[in-house]
Amino acid sequence: MDALIAIKQAEDEADEIKRQAAHRARDIVLTAEREGDEMLRNVIKEAQHNSRLLLEKAEHEAEKERALLLEQHENQKQLLVNGANAEMKKAVSLIVGKVVALNGNR
């Protein structure tokens, strides 16, 4: 009879060990899920931060490029205006010269 009692106690202890192991396993899984979620949130935050930094850098670079292109355009425009003004002065001088020559020949 003692052997049956010992076997029953051993079975009860084994069942308790199984329940405790299952409980610990659930706790481990829940902890891992929470830690995984937290890691994922951190990775997302970091990626968003890096994305904002890259976007700001790209916008800054684009603004520098835009300013450079605008300056080049203004320089080219000024060269054209200066060239056109010089040509107009020549044309006016030629016209005035022709008018004076025509009036002088009368």
Description:
- By secondary structure, the protein is an all-alpha fold.
- Helix content is 97%, strand content 0%.
- The protein has one helix and no strands.
- It has one helix spanning 2-104.
- The longest helix is centred in the middle third of the chain and has 103 residues, at 2-104.
- The chain is rod-shaped.
- The mean pLDDT is 93.
Give a topology summary.
Layout: H1 2-104
Q: Which labels suit this protein?
A:
106 residues; single chain; mainly alpha
Please give the oligomerization state of what you see.
Answer: single chain
Tell me roughly what share of residues is in helical segments.
Answer: over 70%
Low-confidence stretches: none
Strand-residue proportion: under 5%
Largest sheet: none
**Rg estimate, integer Å:** 45 Å
How many β-strand stretches? 0
Q: Total helix count?
A: 1
Specify the overall morphology.
rod-shaped
Instruction: Give the helices and strands as they follow along the chain.
Output: H
Alpha-carbon distance between the two ends: 154 Å
What is the overall pLDDT average? 93
Structural class by secondary-structure content: mainly alpha
